[in-house]
């Protein structure tokens, strides 16, 4: 029977968990006390042999062996091995619980879609839900020792009312080498199809909904069967068990209180009872016992699933919902808050203080903004608004088009590669044709491009110039000093990639 202590820990208070330490049923003491007694007895025997029976030479030899065993305990990763294993076991334990088939959804669909107040309608609804419960009983008999003890043979299933004599004959006439828990589900589908042909199920949509719910129910039965069939690999369980037992075997020898090797040498405090070692045994061996108990929750331990109670509950609730509750509902009337805009149920004196607490409206609801009025004004969307971007990322996300034009690919030399001419504001021409450009900048760029074409045409006719290489006159020192510097303006929202270009040297 499951040990429930939810009410005991409903409120956090002083010594809340401490009170749970005095329970026996389902406790770690009940699981571990036998192994704990064996460990204490073995430790005491070794201690007596060391103190009373060994000679001085044998004690020195035993001391060396004990020191070796004590060092060896540090080489076994107990926390890692047990932590990973128990986590796997707990996840599997909860997954098995969620795979237990419950007929609640299926019985609601049957009650709402299989119609008829006459005897035939009652028979159809009760038979459909009984087939579902029969399938669950058959699969639980295969995985749970408690259910198998309750229904050891099919005669007990027949006597319990889960199947009739004719159904048992049909069930036993089907020979199969595998588990036949799925046969009632097939009976369910055939009976539902017959009810559709008879008009008890009004449309195919309702039949499809009924089949979908049955498939979900059958899938849970199948999952339980596979969880029982496919266990956690045996080698993993063996590794964890050997690690725990070998660790405490080393502790039996290495955690003894020893005399110093040399006469006159100060030794450790002889406490006779190794408290820290006993606590380690309690924690690590108890950890292993937790995994041992919940690795198969369909047994008969204190915290295993109460499958027999589930069978009783499922049968009673499902038959009640499809028979007595079929179209048996109270009249629909106006509720108490019919003319009220805001419905407010009353509170008792014990809970009246909760009405004083304001409703939660969001973490930033009471946040105070800046009192400066300028910070709260709306910003106008204009091309002059600066865009703050990371320069390095802008090179990747807002890269300009290739700088070399195919039309002018043959011009110039290798020493002077062609570069795209920058705009006057310091950026490259926008690759997006739909964006607005500064008219003055566009006109200036077009004028410069025209001058370049004229200079290339004049250079090609200059005498003494080699073909394929433009003639470039050198400027004097005075002309270099008089060259104006180009001032870079602040980048605008229309210049893509201009925010990372700091200056342009002609």
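-> sequence recovered:
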């Amino acid at each position: 029977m499951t040990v429930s202590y939810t009410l005991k820990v409903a409120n956090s208070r002083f010594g809340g968990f401490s009170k749970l330490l005095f329970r026996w049923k389902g406790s770690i003491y009940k699981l571990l006390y036998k192994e704990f007694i064996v460990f204490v007895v073995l430790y005491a025997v070794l201690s007596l042999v060391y103190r009373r029976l060994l000679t001085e030479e044998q004690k020195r030899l035993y001391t060396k062996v004990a020191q070796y065993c004590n060092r060896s305990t540090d080489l076994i990763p107990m926390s890692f091995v047990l932590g990973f294993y128990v986590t796997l076991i707990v996840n599997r334990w909860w997954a098995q619980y969620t795979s237990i088939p419950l007929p609640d959804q299926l019985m609601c669909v049957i009650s709402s879609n299989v119609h008829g107040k006459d005897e035939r309608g009652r028979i159809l609804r009760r038979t459909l839900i009984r087939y579902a419960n029969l399938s669950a009983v058959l699969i639980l008999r295969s995985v749970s020792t408690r259910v198998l003890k309750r229904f050891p043979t099919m005669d007990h299933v027949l006597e319990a009312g889960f199947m009739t004599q004719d159904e048992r004959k049909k069930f036993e006439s089907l020979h199969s080498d595998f588990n036949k828990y799925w046969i009632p589900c097939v009976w369910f589908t055939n009976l539902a199809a017959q009810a559709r042909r008879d008009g008890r199920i009004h449309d195919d949509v309702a039949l499809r909904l009924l089949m979908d719910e049955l498939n979900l129910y059958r899938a849970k039965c199948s999952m339980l069967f596979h969880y029982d069939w496919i266990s956690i690999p045996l080698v993993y369980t063996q590794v964890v068990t050997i690690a725990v037992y070998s660790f405490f075997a080393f502790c039996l020898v290495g955690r003894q209180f020893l005399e110093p090797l040399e006469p006159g040498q100060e030794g450790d405090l002889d406490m006779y009872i190794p408290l820290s070692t006993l606590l380690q045994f309690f924690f690590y061996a108890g950890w292993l016992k937790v995994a041992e108990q919940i690795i198969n929750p369909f047994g008969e331990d204190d915290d295993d699933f109460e499958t027999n109670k589930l069978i009783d509950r499922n049968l009673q609730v499902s038959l009640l919902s499809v028979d007595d509750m079929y179209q048996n509902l109270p009249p629909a009337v106006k509720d108490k808050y019919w003319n009220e805009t805001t419905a407010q149920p009353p509170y008792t004196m014990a809970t009246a203080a909760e009405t004083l607490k304001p409703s939660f409206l969001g973490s930033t609801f009471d946040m105070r903004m800046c009192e400066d009025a300028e910070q709260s004004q709306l910003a106008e969307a204009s091309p002059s608004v600066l865009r703050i971007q990371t320069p390095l990322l802008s090179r990747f996300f807002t890269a300009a088009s290739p700088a070399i034009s195919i039309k002018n690919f043959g011009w110039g030399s290798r020493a002077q590669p062609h570069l795209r001419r920058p705009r006057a504001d310091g950026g490259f021409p926008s690759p997006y044709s739909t964006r607005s450009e500064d008219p003055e900048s566009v006109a200036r760029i077009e004028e410069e491009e025209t001058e370049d074409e004229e200079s290339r045409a004049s250079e090609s006719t200059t005498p003494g110039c080699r073909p394929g290489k433009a003639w470039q006159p050198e400027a004097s020192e005075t002309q270099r000093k008089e060259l104006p510097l180009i001032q870079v303006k602040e980048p605008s929202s229309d210049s893509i990639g201009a925010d990372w270009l700091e200056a342009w040297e002609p």
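Residues 25-98+236-261+269-294 form one domain.
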